[in-house]
Amino acid sequence: MARMIGAEMFFETLIDEGIDVIFGIPGGYVLKVYDVMPKFTDRIKHVLTRHEQGATHMADGYARASGKPGVVLCTSGPAATNTVTGIATAQMDSSPIVVFTGQVPLPYLGSDAFQEADHIGITRPCTKHNYLVRKAIDLPKTMKEAFYIASSGRPSPVLVDMPKDVILGEDELIIPDEISLRGYNPPTKGDPKQIKKAVDMILKSKRPIIFGGGGIIHANATAELIEFAHRLEIPVTSTLMGLGAYPQDDPLYVHMLGMHGSYAANMAVHSSDLVISIGARFDDRATGGNFEEFSPNAEIIHIDIDPSTIDKNIVVHCPIIGHAKEVLKQLLEALPSKIDFDRSKWRRQINEWDKKHPMSYNQTEDKILTSFAIDTLSKITDDDAIIVSDVGQHQMWVAQFYKFNYPRTHITSGGLGTMGFGFPAGMGAKFACPDKQVVCVCGDGSFQMNMQELATAVEHKMDLKIMLLNNGHHGMVRQWQTMFFEGNYSASRFGVLPDFVMLAQSFGATGLRVDRPDQLEATLKEGLSTEGVVLMEIMVDCEELVYPMIAPGGAMSDMILGVSDVA
Amino acid sequence: MRHTISLFVDNESGVLSRVAGLFSARGFNIESLNVAETLDPDTSRITLVTTGDDFIIEQVIKRFNNMVNVIWVDDLTEETRVEREMILLRVEAKEKTRAEILRMADIFRAKVVDVGLETYTLELTGDKEKVNAFMELLEPMGIKEIARTGTVAMKRDTKNSNTGDSQ
Ligand SMILES: Cc1ncc(C[n+]2csc(CCOP(=O)(O)OP(=O)(O)O)c2C)c(N)n1
Ligand SMILES: [Mg+2]
Asked: Does ipTM surpass 0.90 in this model?
């Protein structure tokens, strides 16, 4: 057995785990890790980010695009606390990342040593699990456990804290082949009794609807979902996190539901007699938050890998705990060979809703509307391009107007709503899928929260496009002020903005700007076809509002459909 | 409703904060908490008593189940179970109350574990009601200090259900 120090074991274990890229910044207690790194960089790429939050979002974007865990390496104290927003973001959207932090030597723990922070305590509520490693010999096993926990069951972040003496400690390298943890047995197959019950409910339902969430994507269950929906001719709607899990081109697709979901989807869920939720957790942005009035005439089947999501917001009639792919396979097997149903009336009804209030915008010659800009982007990008959005109005328009036909092509911070996520997460996605077209769709507010990573992107000669929607505002804040605060625009307008084109150029990237609707498409095409990091600044109308909207706490049938509806 | 929850957890640092953290995150108070090693030194048993909305407690228990360090959880509230708690109680023992205190200790099968110039320290084991009743009776004499272990609990062995220990 080879003897080596903890720092070397760290890389040997990453390689054993199949990790090919890590995101990080060196400093105090991890300097030895960085010192040995050059020996391994033929097998592992290190991306030197400009902020640890950037590193965490990159790892997250990498994980969401590839399905493989994303890895962060940084030092202790301020570096570790900088990762917290990224960890919490990944946790809320069930993204597997593993964060490795340096720590003061074990004997100094708790002594307020230089750059000491309680990483374990600080990240306990936002990780699935975290570890303080005490001996070098334990490091490989702990790392393998961390990757296993992060990527199995409901995917989630895990943090591994590595004190300096562990990093320097010399011992034998022992990487276990298999991990077994007595307190951790993630579910796979659903309970056959529940499967049978669900099938009975499905067979007698007249107005079923599939409520698809991000869990379908984590479980790589798209093929099974398509087969299931087609066999039973069940319309499929999607949460924000589920976009792409089901092809939007498919005739059974009813588009997104929720706070800014389509009229047809929200009406369909509200009027359905059977909601089949798969990998979704009925959060308040997906249901409108009025849990009492949620789908009042429906029975609910809830398929989820995490038992703690069952009955959390909505009491369900048939919970099935299991992996979405496995459970869908079981359901398909349990269906009788001949099934009688007539969905024509139900599907006609949904189509009528859709025709009555489709997602739409009214682009004039004057100012570019963000909705129009996203619709245009959707038409000119590759079919399987990865679109990574930030947080705000533009994020909702991406969800409404970009056509997602494949899983892992829509990446956004849905659960935590972290501004500044989009750009670094898009970089992570590009590292995961270098051959795919990746476009970051950012708000002017959000972009400013992590724009330092332009340097990282240029340094890595990334072929990455940024579509920056400049409305001069925290647009979503402004929208709420318009709708719910009598137009009191307090602190939502930017008094100063950088010249984003020059900003891009100052980092060595290309910058383009457009402010006329008739030139939008040409500019986007030019930007998308220019090599390297390209920032396309789109000057958009700050007065456009995202509709439909369920006012917070409202029922799904209670939608504000346009300006005239606002009190 | 009051719940008595039993958890088997990995006997390692940080586990207790994880368990307690689920309560503090919801603004819930833990009434009592007892932790000690089991027959297997790698495993600790936690007995936790809390009062709260049944629905939320059910959610908390599901979260316990999700924790990597939690091997097994059981809500004993609905089970037939044995619950015990121990209390150390220091009471003023004046000339004229001494005999009375000893008489009550005898009735409750409490033990005198320390005698001071003007105090007795008593040890009593029993369920919560018994401990509370004992404290109430001694209250007029002047209780100076108490230390309670918090509840420990076990499901009854129903196959062989003798209630020999009931008192
Ligand atoms: C880190 C963080 N801070 C604050 C918020 C609150 N917030 C939500 S949307 C928004 C405005 C976003 O502005 P911008 O990125 O320009 O997008 P727009 O709505 O204008 O399209 C703010 C401030 C948030 N979601 N995240
Ligand atoms: Mg903006």
From this structure: no
